[in-house]
Amino acid sequence: MGKRKKDRMFGGGIYARYIKRVLDIICAFFGLLILSPIMLIVAVLVRVKLGKPVIFIQERPGRNGKIFKLYKFRSMSDARGKDGKLLPDAERLGKFGKSLRATSIDELPELINILKGDMSVVGPRPLLVRDMVFMNDIQKKRHCVLPGLTGLAQVNGRNGVDWKKKFGYDLKYIKKITFYNDLKIIIKTVNKALIHKDGITEEGMSTATDYGDYLLALGKVSQTAYNIKQIEAEKLLINERKKLR
Q1: pTM greater than the 0.85 cutoff
Q2: What is the radius of gyration, based on Cα positions, of the chain?
Q3: Nearby residues of 88 by Cβ (< 8 Å), 6 or more positions away
Q4: What's the angle, vertex CA 198, arms to CA 150 and CA 149, rounded to 5?
Q5: CB within 8 A of 56, min separation 6: which ones?
Q6: Which of 13, 54, 92, 157 has its CA at a distance of 20 to 30 angstroms from the CA of residue 76?
Q7: pLDDT digits (tens, 9 = 90+) for 4-16
Q8: How far is CA 155 from the centre of its chain?
């Protein structure tokens, strides 16, 4: 077979193909080393305020759509209603959880994902499997690189940006991946998280709206198509869990 054609949307040179991964490992290693006291304190606070487990693990699609386990500090309680079902996110995300998310401290365990090779320091944020199944072929191009701890969409509004713009930022990022661009994103991330604390969630929302829900609300997909895609996402997760047994 002939050589695979290069993805025209991927603008990665020597930095993106070889140097970026080395810097990711260095940054993640020293990040864990320096931040370990803070992470230990946060772990204790999460255990006391929210209970077990301290680390929230969730399957996310990574590079080439391969599903991996993403690690975060837990930020929601397991509060349930009289019917035994979990309460809405807004009621389970208390003041403590909001503060973790506002400063992005809940995402520090993702440094482990970076060391493992699941993620990069900078790249399109790893979304949910149930988001991925609704993407078209162009939008899925965002998966041609490792997902990031932070990204271009995050420094331009994070969850406050609608899905169309979010995908636009992701595709713009992969077209020109350079050390300078990554450094700018990292600096802006620190500035937004520690100083401004803005763009954490959509206005009036505790968490971001799923892409499928967004499309359904706009009438871009029918209820039947929506239900089929949700089943598709669940099957992908079930098959992935079977592989790990």
Answers
A1: yes
A2: 18
A3: 206
A4: 10
A5: 71, 72, 73, 74, 75, 106
A6: 157
A7: 455 566 677 899 9
A8: 13
